[in-house]
UniProtKB/TrEMBL annotation:
Coiled coil: none annotated. The keyword Aminoacyl-tRNA synthetase does not apply. Keywords: DNA-binding, Transcription, Transcription regulation. It comes from Pseudoduganella namucuonensis. This is Transcriptional regulator, AraC family. Residues 224-324 form the HTH araC/xylS-type domain. The keyword Transcription applies.
Length: 324
């Protein structure tokens, strides 16, 4: 049994320009989600075992860079601040999905700010990210003469990029984070400009992946409709036939939609979603104290013994240990 301890180290300003650096170590997926500055996020743990998460983040006046490491597979609901663009560089594409679309090694994920998107990341996942104000990036591109497909970026999810430029950008992000962890805790002069230049090198030789096929978009809508229904009726047991009726699809089609978009069955997803909901409620310090059985019932669990067993298998600890 372990405690769900979160360690945050915020070193404050690391340069005269007001940049700030922090690291976060946590044993709870949702706690990791809440610690990425200026993001609205919710993480659901999908694979069984104790969770370990680490975040290293550098915030500068115009850009934000970070590296995130996660031990278990996680479904992430994410929203970047309005007016910004996010670019994600996973160490490995295998098992990573953005809005249901599988990633390939060597690609870059991108989403504009102000709109929700979904990531499904595998176990032992690590990613470098950079967030930049769109106007800042546009001015930098104009100064450098870099050609950026702005219309494509508005709707893009995946970019195919030059591997050397991608590697250079990842190294620039990693170097900036490492410098802030070093003894001087400072970026060199022009460090932020160097990061923007590295990102523009990626974008100058990138191609936007075509939009998902209409058939896949339909499957994605089915999954979203079922998820909304599950959350709206979280306090009672739901059956697969009921979910099929709500989505207006056959049992086989529902199964195929979930496996294609999320890589798991609808019953497994339902169970994981509800167990994460219970955990989130148990760990909420502002929630009114209630018996664990009552919280489990709120999420549709009728048998406390079965719930407790499933909970322990997924999170590696008992519900009472989580609350403690």
């Amino acid at each position: 049994m372990h405690q769900n301890v979160t360690t945050t180290m915020d070193t404050g300003p690391v340069s005269r320009t007001g940049a700030a650096f922090r690291t976060v170590l946590t044993r709870d997926a949702d706690e990791l989600a809440r610690n990425l500055t200026d993001w609205e996020q919710c993480y659901d743990q999908m694979t069984a075992g104790s969770f370990r998460g680490a975040l290293t983040e550098l915030r500068m006046p115009r850009t934000q860079v970070f590296r995130e490491e996660i031990s278990q597979s996680v479904r992430q609901s994410c929203t970047v601040r309005p007016g910004a663009l996010w670019f994600g560089f996973p160490d490995h594409g295998d098992g990573t999905r953005i809005n249901g679309r599988p990633m390939e090694d060597g690609c870059v994920m991108v989403r504009p700010g102000g709109g929700e998107f979904e990531l499904l990341t595998p176990s032992r996942h690590a990613i470098h990210g950079i967030v930049v104000c769109r106007e800042t990036l546009a001015r930098a591109a104009l100064r450098s003469g870099c050609g950026v497909d702005w219309d494509g970026l508005r709707s893009a999810e995946v970019l195919r990029v030059d591997p050397d430029e991608r590697l250079a950008c990842v190294r620039a992000i990693a170097s900036a984070l490492a410098l802030c962890q070093g003894p001087e805790r400072a970026l060199p002069a022009g460090g932020e400009d160097g990061l923007l230049a590295a990102l523009l090198g990626v974008l100058d030789r990138s191609g936007v992946e075509p939009a998902a096929a209409l058939s896949f978009q339909r499957r994605r809508r089915v999954v979203a409709r079922v998820r909304d229904y599950i959350l709206a009726h979280r306090d009672r047991p739901l059956t697969v036939p009921e979910l099929c009726a709500q989505a207006h699809v056959s049992r086989r089609t529902l199964q195929y939609c979930f496996e294609d978009v999320l890589g798991m069955s609808p019953t497994l997803y339902l169970r994981r979603l509800r167990l994460n909901g219970v955990r989130r409620q148990l760990l909420d310090p502002g929630a009114r104290p209630r018996p664990i059985g009552a919280v489990a019932a709120d999420w549709g669990f009728g048998s406390f013994s079965q719930f407790s067993s499933d909970y322990r298998k997924l999170f590696g600890e008992s519900p009472s240990a989580s609350r403690a």
